[in-house]
């Protein structure tokens, strides 16, 4: 980002994308290693998950075992696999976020950055991101509870043929998914960047993210919805060709298509993480919250165990007021 801080607020979505895509050119080796060790496993797991669970589900649904103990064993294996997948997914998602946000901020402050320095900073960054993620999870739990309630109302409306109740439940479910889900996702992504770059995390980072989104919520919604839509299309094609396309496509075709879409998802996830980092600076600029690069430089150094002057934390707090 070679633009002046006050100019960042005027960036449009295409310009944000262009700025984000240009960032890896400043430290190609670092981003290559981050992509290979963190983002690739994350992307592969997202798509390969259905590839491994589909045969298990098909066996349970189409060929149920007459032995209850065998059925219970198969369901237990499926649940263990799902649990391990979720742990892997969230761990690598947070690790990828920590690595990319830290690296982008280091480049922004002209701080020397290497893959080893980024990896060294991750343990301290990860703790902050995890606490923020727990608060976001509570919010998502509330959101899912509301969705579940209206899904039950929808089923009741179908059974009773209540047109008004059916329409109301559909509208609420649609609005919640299209608006609330997208907004919470944007809130989480921005709060993750705040947790890394500012001396706050958890619910405080969520509150700061909420303040930063004011005036830029529509732009955030477009970016998040675009990301989710692209991931949905990739997942849909991967599922139809690779997972369920055994009768239509040969093994070679499925391998090629699968590898291609894993590569595409890797690029999409990398660009998505870069965009959320750049979007943070856009929001700060929009609200005229200047970022002292020397203070941010010292803040990032704290993750590496470097000496951080006492005045740095005071200056950061003043900048956040």
UniProtKB/TrEMBL annotation:
Keywords: Membrane, Transmembrane, Transmembrane helix
Transmembrane intervals: 31-52, 75-108, 129-158, 164-197, 218-243, 255-283
Signal peptide, first to last residue: none
PANTHER family named in the record: OS01G0800300 PROTEIN, OS08G0107100 PROTEIN-RELATED
Protein name stated in the entry: Polyadenylate-binding protein 1-B-binding protein
Organism: Hevea brasiliensis (Para rubber tree)
Lineage: Eukaryota, Viridiplantae, Streptophyta, Embryophyta, Tracheophyta
